[in-house]
Amino acid sequence: MAATTTPLDDRAIGEFEATVRGPVLRPGDDGYDEARTVYNAMIDRRPAVVVRPTGAVDVMTAVEFAREHDLLVAVKGGGHNVAGLAVCDDGLLIDLGLMSSVRVDTDARTARVGPGARLGDLDHETARFGLVAPAGVVSITGVAGLTLGGGFGYLCRKHGMTLDNLRSVDVVTADGDLVHASEDEHPDLFWGIRGGGGNFGIVTSFEFDLHELSDVVAGLIVYPADQAHEIVRAWWEFASEAPDELSVWLNFSTAASEPFIPEEYHGERILSVIPIYSGDVDRGWDVIRPLRELGDPIADTVEVHRFVDWQQAFDESYPAGERYFWKSHNFRDPSIEALDRITDGALSPPTPETRVSVTHLGGAVNRVSPDATAYPHRDADFLVNITTRWDDPDRDEECIAWTREYFDALAPYATGGTYVNFTTESEGEQSMAYLDNYDRLVALKNDWDPDNRFRMNQNVEPTV
Ligand SMILES: Cc1cc2nc3c(=O)[nH]c(=O)nc-3n(C[C@H](O)[C@H](O)[C@H](O)COP(=O)(O)OP(=O)(O)OC[C@H]3O[C@@H](n4cnc5c(N)ncnc54)[C@H](O)[C@@H]3O)c2cc1C
User: How far is CA 130 from CA 150, 160, 214, 275, in A?
Assistant: First the structure.
């Protein structure tokens, strides 16, 4: 490759700048640092060149430019990936942030979404029409990375993963071509896009199916640490029988000084049981009632919310610009011992900012075959995500070690699968993320990106 490439000098960058419509930035330029900054403050990488495309043609030109100069390519959607895969050292950063438009077609009940859109952009445009695209639960998360890795949120039990609601995509390939992929066009590529991350090309447009939804019954039912083991056991007894309209998540955190938490618990570890009912509101109250009668809660904030508002309920709990290390396990049919081990670790974090969240899966997610899309985890009942957070770089080693230790302690009880979008390290996690779909992903990579141009992702290495 290197023999046929041309040097990356001022002239080459000037020519590139003249052929794209979006800004081209170099170290020292206004906007360069903003473009290279991602969610996790642990990541501090400096690309040689940044381009901020305004459309698919700029993306095509950027891929050709990278090939001509043999540059490593990083692709940034929302920049929320905790592993920092959206940004590289030295190569070309393609920051899609300017391509954030969302267009809703109310007749067809679909939305066309640009690859720089955040979940909040998508929810804002669809909510006005009483519609929703099932996605994640923090509004500044990028639609692109979330969808390409899977995408679960409060509606996945009813409507499936975000990628199950994807109708089609436009993709710029490693050759710099623009192709449309769907069940009917390039179905192989469409299969791989749905769970294989950014391995096969750069998606420049997503088309989603939308569903009707305006209000939900949702809130936090909060318990002190000394009730946590008992409540987690009771939670699973209830949640394992829940209808698809109901998701019940858990979140372990340290109580801040929110007015709804009694003062004596401020600074103490707490467990929030979080029901979200997305069917008929009156029925929702009835369905959730037994959950509100478990144990002796110190707070109960369940009420009717506009779904679009509830989608922002946790935004402040996961702020950008902090140091993070995440690891996750999937669980199926857990034993009491498994539930207790999850609770033990969640109650003894290295920092008060550390949260452990339990995502309720099952329902429509699991009614899809594991090989129908590249996302293979169709057997998990729930996922435990360890989101260790701290701010002092001197504590990096300790916080990372704690996360790994907790993750290892849970491994004997878990399914052996992990969510590609929650991994912070690649060693050993590729096989856990792609499971039995890995060989088919390699074959696809050999077809669509044999030179591994797109490798800033949970990489599927080509074998040609
Ligand atoms: C606070 C927080 C909450 C979260 N909540 C949820 C949740 O509820 N549900 C859930 O499923 N996930 C959740 N996630 C995980 C989330 O799905 C990932 O972080 C995801 O990578 C975010 O997408 P992004 O576009 O912001 O990623 P980026 O960091 O921009 O990119 C992630 C990866 O995707 C690639 N990529 C990005 N855009 C494109 C594109 N257009 N074409 C090809 N490749 C591309 C990048 O190169 C990189 O490899 C959460 C993450 C955070 C930090």
Answer: 24, 19, 5, 21
What's the pLDDT tens digit per position in 4-26?
Answer: 677 789 999 999 999 999 999 99
CA of residue 150 relative to chain centroid, distance: 7
So where are the chain's domains?
11-98, 102-213+436-448, 215-429
CB of 203 within 6 A of ligand 1: the answer is: yes
Which is the closest atom of ligand 1 to the Cα of 197? 34
Decide if 50 contacts 34 (C-beta within 8 A).
no
> CA neighbours within 13 Å on the CB side: how many for 13?
15
Q: What is the mean predicted confidence (pLDDT) over 433-446?
A: 96
Spatial distance between the Cα atoms of 464 and 446, rounded to a whole number of angstroms = 6
**CATH class for the domain made up of 102-213+436-448:** alpha beta
Residue 399 structure tokens? 């916080």
Q: CA-based Rg of the chain, rounded to a whole angstrom?
A: 22
Query: At residue 424, does pLDDT exceed 90?
Result: no
What are the tens digits of pLDDT across the range 389-421? 999 999 999 999 999 999 999 999 999 999 999
Residue 311 near ligand 1, beta carbon < 6 Å: no
State which H helix or E strand residue 259 sits in: none
Question: CB of 115 closer than 6 A to ligand 1?
Answer: yes
Q: Is the CB of 421 under 6 A from ligand 1?
A: yes
Ligand 1 atom index nearest CA of 40: 53
Q: Give the CATH class of 215-429.
A: alpha beta
Fold classification of 11-98 (topology level): 3.30.43
Q: Is the CB of 195 under 6 A from ligand 1?
A: no
For residues 287 and 306, is the Cβ–Cβ distance under 8 A? no
The pairing of beta strand 49-51 with beta strand 92-95: parallel
Q: Do 141 and 119 meet the contact criterion of CB atoms below 8 Å apart?
A: yes
Buried b (16+ CB within 10 A) or exposed e, 416-451: ebbbbbbbbeeeebbebbbbebbebbbbbbeebbee
Q: 228-239 and 336-346 helices cross at what angle (nearest 10)? A: 130
Residues 253/358, Cβ–Cβ less than 8 Å: no
Q: pLDDT tens digit string along 30-66?
A: 999 999 999 999 999 999 999 999 999 999 999 999 9
Tell me whether residue 286 is exposed, middle or buried, using C-beta atoms within 10 angstroms of its C-beta: 0 to 12, 13 to 18, 19 or more.
Answer: exposed
Ligand 1 centroid to 209 CA: how many Å?
A: 20
* CB 153 less than 6 A from any atom of ligand 1: yes
Separation of 316 CA from ligand 1 center, angstroms? Answer: 18
Is any ligand 1 atom within 6 A of the Cβ of residue 151?
yes
